[in-house]
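ok so heres the complex, two chains, lmk if somethin looks off
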Amino acid sequence: MVPPREGVRTFPPSGLAKTELVSPRTIAEACDVLSRASVEGKRAVLLCGGTDWIVDRHLMAPEKVKPVDTVIDLTKVAALSSIGFHEVDGARRMVLGGGVTYWSLRRDARVLGTVPMLATMARDVGAVQIQTRGTLAGNLASASPAADGVPALMALDGIAVLTSTRGERRVPIDGFFTAYRKTVLEKDEIITAIDLRIPSDGAIVTWRKVGTRLAQAISKVALAAVLERDASGVVTRARFGMASVGPMTAPLRNVRTLLEGKPLASIDRLALDAAVAKDVTPIDDVRSTGEYRIHVAKTLVWRALHP
Amino acid sequence: MIRLTVNGHPHEVDAPPLSRLLDALRLTIGLTGTKEGCGEGECGACTVLLDGVPVNSCLVALGQCEGSEITTVEGLAMGDELSALQRCFVESGGAQCGICTPGMLVSAEALLRDNEAPSEEEVRDAIAGNLCRCTGYQRIVDAIGEASVKLAMAKRPQGGE
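and the predicted structre for the whole thing:
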């Protein structure tokens, strides 16, 4: 074993060397710490797996790192890792704690048994080492339009449960983002859970991520889709979430309107393509071109209708 | 002061809680087997087990490890005796330049603890977060497959028939 090197300090980048780390055990305690920090004018940050935040802080130019007073580590709050079910108006819903990791989505028998699409999606996130750390709440709070978890939560009619010392409010995922990397989350709020609608039996449920390689790739485009039909084949419900085609995860509202109330078989490819084109505004960047992304977006939606 | 157990030994680490676990392991505790490749959670060279689960130690704040058990590549061998997995890497040519090897071994260790007889697809999934620029992966996949066979044989009851 190499002996410890004298005089080498393990300080994190400037701005974090004096940051305190608090590890609450309950949601109430976490809300309390966050609320107190906000009242005292302290800069507090909520931390789960750190797959975005820690990287950003360590790779950022030191002068750009804003000092943080308190980091609130949410990984020790057991209630945030819970997975449960409840019923609303006869429809079964699943409630995933904000701290549920992709790794648990991949392996949890209840998830695999009710919404296997979540497990399929989770398998496509980074690789095992990212899946064991990354959480759904972190994915929502980071608000990247390339997030993998967010499209899936959106297509499942997800509702984010936001908790603070002031109480609780519920915000549908398709109204959670306000602009590129911006959300409705207030400074004293924690994303404690996501409440999802379990697709009906016989629903067509799709997850497809297109990237440069299978693992450790950020998507060029990704699609989550849930299509429910009645006995005559008419689409009764169409929900989508598409990643990397605009400043925010896209709910594809025009596609939804086009499909609902019509027999799936009657949907014309050109009309569908036109609706997709109205719903997405992809850009050229290091991962792909806008032109290719539109092509892939149209193809993925078409294939979601014809599995 | 952060208290954690590394490879079975208790440590008290005097470092800011927002230090990376990777830096605490390499610089303070002196276990330099864990490598820093990219420093952004892409390459897996810094993989360690955190309470039995593979993580990139460049993404974990030291303070999040209070009371946790960490296993690094140094914790795989029994003294000077390489583990079956490590021997298979040596014998199959699973290690070339060596930078990815500690992370590969730790990811493979996590897989084999969880799944005694992984398929090739499962092996490839388990090491998908560990990038290797030398081997083309095949010999690493072979080494892990052979290790699973050897471990299964070692577990078989001795004698009998």
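quick notes: Chain A touches chain B through 41 residues (CB under 8 Å). thats all i got rn
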